[in-house]
Structures are given as structure tokens and as C-alpha cells.
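Q: My collaborator sent me two sequences in one message, no labels, and asked for predicted structures for both. Can we handle them in order? The first one she listed is below.
A: Yes, handling them in the order given. First sequence, followed by its C-alpha cells:
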Amino acid sequence: MSLLRRGPASSEAERERKQKAELRAVRLERTREARAATRMMVAPEHKYGIYVSIVLVLVAVYSFLSTDVGQVNEPVHGKAHYVQATLPPHPAQAIVLLIFALAAAATIYWRRRLVSGLSYIVTGFFAIQTPLPKAASDLAYFLFLVPAGYAFWMLMFRMNKEQKAWLNEHYPPAGGTAAAATRNSTRRAAASGGPARSSRGSSASAGASRAAQIRSGRYTPPRAKTKSAPRKS
């Protein structure tokens, strides 16, 4: 009984499953080829990366040299009091940001989009942790958005757009042009030979026959419709 149940239906399902697996493998192989063909940077991506690194280096130098005024807990006669004092700079975080910014700029030498993009994203995480004075505290979110935005712009928009263009150029969709030509021909046929054309032809032939009857004297115009008087009860 089990052999009978695994008849044509099971073989058809197995064939369909194998066909889907083959199509998936072909799609993955084409995607790998597109990624390999579009992994290099294209102008002006490397130029914008240099600009982002310059901004991060300037911010690191500003954080290294800047000081801030804040409240410090100092014991006075055995009691804790908050007094205003000049806070020292934070050289450790600023130096870390400087190193990562220069390393991200150095990756542009190889022009690899994925390597440079990941480097700038990591640099953005260190940039948002860099301490700044209170007057420039809102600049921390800007420091993360600049390198992360550059990386996403390069990887998500530029690279994906080039991959789609590469796939359409090397592997055009099968039947796309034929289907478009069929749709265009159907639309032209519907616009030229539809019911509107037949109605125009019939009205023209009826007008021609009526004109011939008038010329021959056998045309009798239709009687005008008159309302009948109401019956008297």
C-alpha cells in the first residue's frame, strides 16, 4: 500500500523539489559572481571615505585637547561637598578614536567596499563613546551617524545598485523582451481593431446606404413619435 501511495504524485513532488533546489543554487552562484564583480570601490566613494576620516581625526584631537568644567566631590572637614573644578581631558578614548579613524582611512588603499565599510562602522561605535565637553555633547550622535551612514550608503545603495545592473546585463530575465513585445502588440491590436472600429465602420456603411436611398427617391423619413391622447372613460 505504501508503494502505491508513493506513485506519480510523490515523483512529481520530488521532481519539483529538485528543480527548485537547482534554481536556488543557480541564483546563489549568480549572486556570488555579482558580489565579486562589484567588490571594488568606484569614485567618489574613496574620496568621501577620506573626508569622513578627516572629520573623525579632528574630533579626536578636539577631545584630546579640550577641558570641561563640572562638579567634583571633594571632602571638606570630613564632609562631602560638590565644588566646580576643571576636569582633565580624556586622552585614552581620544587616542583610540584617532587610531581607528586612521586605520579606516588606510583600508581605502585596497578599495574593498566590504572591508572599508565594516571598518567605518566599528569606528563609529568608538566615536560615539568618545567624551566631549558639555557644549558639544550632542556631537556624539553625529560622530556615529557620519561613518555609519557612509558605510551603509556605500554597501546598501551603491553596491546593491551595481549588482542589480550587473545581473541584468549578464543574465537578463528570460522571456522579458518577448513578453513585452506580446503586450505591446496586444495593446496596438486592441487600440486599432477593437469594437470602436467596428461601430465606426457600421455607422459609416449605414450612412452610405441612407444617402443612396435619398438619391434614388425611395427614402422615407421616419415618422415622429406623437403622444396618444388619453382614452375617455
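Q: And the one she listed second?
A: Here it is, processed independently of the first:
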Amino acid sequence: MIERAACAAQVEAWQGRMEQALAERLPATDIEPTRLHAAMRYCVLNGGQRVRPLLLFGTARAVGLSETDVEAAACAIEFAHAYSSVHDHLPALDDDDARRGRPTCHEAYDEGTAVLVGDALQSLAFQVLASDAALPEAPLVRLRLIGLLAEAIGASGLAGGQAIDVAAQGRPLSVPDMDAMYARRTGALIRASVLMAAACAPQTAAHPHEALTAFATPLGVAYQIQHDLANAPHRTTRGRANYAAALGPAASRERIRLLHAQALEALGPLGTAADPLRALAEWLLPAD
């Protein structure tokens, strides 16, 4: 198992790499339309953990690839995540006025620009998967990557989870229903991060793909529950269903522990090759 200090150092190195990779693939602010491009860079280059690219890099290590092999896919999934965040913050959905201590896109610019930023970032994500020279040239690999991301952000993934969230406004959801919502709203992109890395190594056997799916699914739900707990004291949710409100902190933390254990158990068939993913899971969901 990778030591915590070594994992933290690796995470910091990967985060730095991603900032540079994202900046290189975003349109420059001196190219028309300059306001849109400036807003895109504002929304993407805003720090953050880069959780999904980290999981993509960790999975790459587990299947015998390097960061260079999957860097473009990591950028694509981060562009997709940024698009979803920009749209989620709009007044029609979560109505957030700040993110990581800075005004959200519609506050810093305007609502119309925020809608267009989300649209442009989603398009850029697929453009990267289709044409970035750093990805494998094989057409079937490119199609698999595009399909995985499309599924993750569509009605069966992120957009569907958000729709369930909106429809449940003002009424409680059962724990299984919240699990299903979280598996789409947050878990779909986390699962796609892991599977997209594996897709860049088409020789990877089916069995590891099953193990990686079984790892990523509970991890995504646990990560969202942890996010609920962290934001519960200072976030209004328009009556939206969440674990922290429904079960309370103690039961929510126990649920995180159970899901974390499920995720780690799923990696058993991969042996020590999956140690980077084990270390990332511990870093994302610390026990203390």
C-alpha cells in the first residue's frame, strides 16, 4: 500500500500537471469571442482537487499506462465536470453565488454567458476525445472514450441524476433512491474517469474492467455523501434531498465507511497493481 505522505506528494504533482494540461487545451483569451473564452478559463482554472483526473491517472497506473497516455482524456472529463458545475450553479438549479471563494460564472459574468460556457466546455470535452493527438489513434478506442463520457453526462448519468434531484425538491427520498441519484449525479463521472483510463489500454481484460466498475460505483456515492456533510453547515439546498439532512452526520459517516470498504474490496482481483487507486480512495475518504 502506498504511504499517505507519498500519496499526497503524487496527488500534488498530478494536480500541477492538470493545471498546465487544461490551460494548454483551453482557447486563449485573445481569440474571439474573447469574453466567452475568458469565462471558460475562469471556470476551469479555478483550483480544486481535480478528483476525476486523479482517478484517471491512478487507473492508468493500475493498467500499465503512463499519465501521458491518458492526459487528454483527463482534460476531457474535467471539462465535462466544469460544464456541469457551471450549469448546476445557475439560479434555475442550485442558485449558488460562490464557488471556492470566488463568484460563480453567472455572478462573475452573466447568466447567458454561463449557459454558453457550459455548452462550450461540453463541446470541448468531446473535441479533445475525438482529435487530441496525445490519445491512442485507434478509432475504436476514441469511440469508446466518447461513448463513456456521453453516457456519464446524459440522461442515464449526470443529467438524469440532476433531474431526479430537481423532481425530489421539497420531499424526502429513501436511502436507496438517494443512492441511485448519487450514482448518476456524482458517481457517473467518477466511474467514467476510471473506465476511460482502462479504455486507453484496449488489451486490458474484461475482469479488471468489472473490478474497476465495482470500485468506482460505491466510491462515487461515498464521495457525494462526504460532500453533503462538508457543506451541510453553510449551504441552503432549496429543500433538496441529501444524506446529511436525512440521516444525520453519524449515520452518514457510517455509510461512507461501508461504501469505502466495498470499493477497496472490489480491487482485490487486481492485486498490488491497484495500489494507486487504494491510496486515492484513502485520500478522498479519510477515516480520521
